[in-house]
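It is worth pausing here to work through a concrete case rather than discussing structure prediction in the abstract. The textbook approach is simple: state the sequence, then state the predicted structure, then interpret. We follow exactly that order.
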Amino acid sequence: MRSTPSRPRSMPDRAGPSDSFAIDLRGVTFIRSGRTLLDDVDLQVGSGQQWALLGPNGAGKSTLLQICSATTFPSRGTASILGSRMGRVDLRELRRSIGFVEACHPLGSSLPAHEVVLTGATGTIEMVPHWVPDDRQHERAEMLLKSVGLEDAGALRWRTMSQGERARSLIARALMADPRLLLLDEPSTGLDLVGREIMLRTIDDLPSTSPGLTTLVVTHHFEELPRATTHAALLRAGRIVAAGPVDEVLTSEPVSECFDHPVTVERAADGRWRASA
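Step two, the predicted structure:
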């Protein structure tokens, strides 16, 4: 099945930016070394919504996430994150309100889990020399570890953690600064079946443990979508194929168009998705 992505389904007409959007991308294009990685992308993510971003390899998902994290500027178009338009605000200040979880966290030393979480307060990879967290910060770090299911984290150190323990500690780290937007880039990468389920339960609990938090999860696998997902976007060849309420977007027709192959999508009684080609 060969086709050119049509006008995205469920996408609003372009208008002015709105503070009700945690992410507001209008005509965003990104070009690197002469190659167009994102092409005229419109995407509006409402505050407090839980989004999933799916698409084949090379679709531009990581590039889109970098723009949403206010670390990469679009080549053309406008990107407003948490009501602040990139290019008109102090990005260092804006990034304090954004939590970003990547599967490959470049931590070299074997910090205890508690200190891994504390680095989220400073936005650094390692603990800042001579910085002494106050009691409130220590208490928040402990609370967050418990909230992600690491109640007995005292003996855990980065180098000896399982992949699942690392993934959950990184979510706690991202929440340390009490962000308004949480971006998760394939958080289940490398996890076994049990580790993946614990991770998904942690993400599913975020709307109750962190009320008002907006999340955007990038994944390749439908079975890794949290049940709490409210909206979804499909990305193919740098263009949005469909975006909107999850039960409208994650259906067989738009998913087949996105992956350029017949795909059957089903949502099971337990609220999880299944896809077969």
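Step three, interpretation. DSSP finds nine helices and twelve strands in the chain. The first helix runs from residue 61 to 68.
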